[in-house]
Automatic annotation (TrEMBL):
Protein's recorded name: ABC transporter substrate-binding protein
A GO cellular component annotation in the UniProt record: periplasmic space
Record's keyword terms, sorted: Periplasm
Subcellular location: Periplasm
Length: 396
């Protein structure tokens, strides 16, 4: 009897192709299992309630901050008892930074590390050479220096800071400064830290392409790799797709250069993980399929070749993959290993997105910083307090 699984991922070649295009390879080994993948927008990937998707699909590719929501509602299966202990141990050994543990919440595991990412820096080597630079910035002072040199030559930096990415910029810079956003806190950030972060963002915004304030990373890299205006992006989630062989105007990716004591540290962790809906009836088949997707040889091989950004460390260290993408993986691995894992409690995502909306609007149109900081902190405090009360009720 044929078993059918329906999956939902996100709408980009990195998110869809390595899963959908490899189904035939899996089915050749497991002819009794059919897998069909659909896709949703990158925006929905970050904000659409996970419980809605779990009602419709067996397999979900999720962002790790949804684990708290999944735990509160019970809409995803705990993968801990479904896979052998040796398999989980392998994923922990293979973790890129905190990617594997980002899906662990309250003693359960709600997804597997399918795709690894964080905010990193990128540049056009030909444009950097035009400015007489032999290497990308290694400190924040050098980032600003490059930005001023770029403007003098009619070029730009770019800082993707649409709502979601504006929030991520705040998270990266605060963590880089040594003051990361903490769960269960009565505020998002101390006002003086928040104020400093906004000042750093304002400095970058003044040197960045004006349209990039409405862009996400994909729009930024599309503009960067198709035109000749943008030389450097200091903070944005990395995509190997723009650095691979065959790209006409390839990008080179490297570690971030923040203003903190360790310039390469504190970048916000991204990535994506495969989860199983609590409503999935074919759990054994889902486990078989996800076991196959997360084998190191598949991740470094067919998964990468079909446009994926692997979630396992051996793929990030694979010489063939690095040669194909101009050392995207090894070039950003230091920042990945020092990445910041944001809170994941139920209610974090709306509070975080609200902060991003405030910062995005402030970067575009200005306004009262003190009011922005106060509103963002108050919203976060209410969300954190509500989640903490819920956890206490669970324990009682």
């Amino acid at each position: 009897m044929t078993v059918r699984l329906r999956g939902i991922t996100w709408d980009h070649s990195r998110g869809f192709d390595p899963l959908a295009r490899n189904v035939a390879r899996f089915t050749a080994r497991h002819p009794h299992i059919e897998v069909e993948w659909s896709r949703r927008s990158l925006r929905d990937f970050g904000v659409q309630p996970v419980e809605e998707l779990a009602e419709q699909f067996d397999l979900l590719v999720i962002d790790h901050p949804f684990t708290g929501r999944a735990h509160a509602l019970g809409c995803l299966r705990d993968l801990k008892p479904l896979f052998p202990a040796a398999f989980h141990a392998m994923l922990n050994r293979e973790s890129v930074g905190p990617s594997t543990r980002s899906y662990d919440y309250a003693g359960s595991i709600y997804a597997l590390p399918t795709d690894a990412a964080a905010q990193v820096a990128s540049y056009r080597p030909d444009l950097l050479d035009r400015l007489g630079r032999e290497a990308p910035p290694r400190t924040f002072a050098e980032v600003l220096e490059l930005g001023h040199a770029a403007r003098a030559a009619g070029l730009w930096l770019a800082m993707p800071s649409c709502q979601s990415d504006a929030a991520c910029l705040v998270a990266t810079l605060s963590a880089n400064l040594g003051h990361p956003i903490q769960p269960w806190s009565d505020r998002l950030l101390a006002p003086h830290v928040f104020d400093a972060v906004l000042d750093y963002l304002r400095q970058l915004a003044e040197l960045s392409h004006p349209l990039s304030r409405d862009w996400n990373p994909i729009a930024t890299y599309d503009a960067m790799s198709s035109g000749d205006e943008i030389v450097y992006v200091p903070f944005a989630f990395g995509y190997t797709n723009y650095s691979r062989q065959g790209v006409a105007k390839p990008l080179i990716y490297t570690n971030i250069a923040g203003p903190g004591p360790d310039p390469a540290a504190g970048t916000i962790l991204g990535g994506a993980g495969c989860a199983i809906s609590a409503r999935c009836r074919e759990v054994e088949a889902a486990v078989e399929y996800l076991s196959w997707v997360h084998q190191p040889e598949h991740q470094a091989g067919d998964y990468y070749r079909e446009g994926g950004q692997p979630g396992l460390r051996s793929a990030w260290l694979d010489p063939e993959a690095n040669a194909d993408c101009r050392n995207f993986f090894t070039g950003t691995l230091e920042s990945m290993d020092k990445a910041y894992l944001r809170p994941r409690f139920d209610g974090f995502i709306p509070a975080f997105e609200h902060m991003g909306e405030l910062v995005h609007e402030w970067l575009k149109n200005g306004g009262d910083k003190a009011s922005l900081i106060r509103e963002a902190n108050d919203t976060y405090a209410r969300a954190s307090e509500k989640a903490a009360r819920r956890l206490l009720m669970e324990k009682d």
